[in-house]
Amino acid sequence: MSSGVYRLHKCQVRYEILAEGVLPKDFKQIEMVNWTALLGLEQRVKVRHTSRSWIVHVETLYGRSPAELGAMAKGLADRVAKALMLKYGCRLREGRFCRGYEIAIDDPVAQFLSRYFTVSTPNRKMDHSPGELEGEIDHLSHDAAVECLLMPERVKTLEGKVEALHMDLTELISTLKQLFNLESDPEKRQRQQMRADTYRT
User: Residue ranges of the domains in the chain?
Assistant: First the structure.
């Protein structure tokens, strides 16, 4: 069974710059095409300044549900963004999650299979992240992670439907057997008909 603990990683929250303030002088400068990115820490959280926005790189977080992880990540990033505005005098728009974040859950099947290969679909990926002891299944969207949470209830519902179908088939087979027995035994069929006629009279 999986641990039931979800892990959010590779998460970034982007804050568009409405009004630029002063720029940090102790950040690492990365030369890009026609502009310079600044990399540094704010409240011990990695941040990046681009030509149009501040990006907060959220640390790896653990929680019991994708919704909990999303709230934790947004809360942490908002606190860092507020500190940036106070410190550097800039004004930032409400933060938005960048694409590419992953919501993973430890999985024993993934632990075994990821020793030999990785598998990915548009919404999920099975691999082994560096530094993690267990294999994992990454849910690449919030909806995919919610679907994973709903899987036990869906399996339970399906089991109930299969059991009901089994009972219906058992009853149908019993009825068909009785019908075939009457067809193969004319005398028995005649007795059954006589009983029916007597009941009607």
Answer: 6-140, 152-200
Q: How far apart are CA 138 and CA 126, in angstroms?
A: 6
Q: Which residue from 97, 79, 200, 75 is spatially nearest to 141, judged by alpha carbons?
A: 97
| Other beta carbons within 10 Å of 136 | 24
For CA atoms 48, 128, 107, 162, the dihedral sign is positive
In the chain, the amino acid numbered 167 is: M
Percent of the chain with pLDDT over 70: 64
169: part of which helix (H) or strand (E)? helix 142-184
| CA 82 and chain centroid, separation | 29
With contact defined as beta carbons under 8 Å apart, do 27 and 46 qualify? no
Render 55-115 in DSSP notation, one character per residue.
Answer: EEEEPPEEESSHHHHHHHHHHHHHHHHHHHHHHH--EEPPPEEPTT-EEEEE-HHHHHHTT
**Reported confidence tier of residue 52, pLDDT bands at 50, 70, 90:** very high
Q: Where residue 109 falls among pLDDT bands split at 50, 70, 90?
A: low
pLDDT digits (tens, 9 = 90+) for 54-102: 999 999 898 888 889 999 999 999 999 999 999 999 999 999 999 888 8
- Distance between the two ends of the chain, CA-based, in angstroms? 65
Strands 11-19 and 96-97, bridge-based pairing: antiparallel
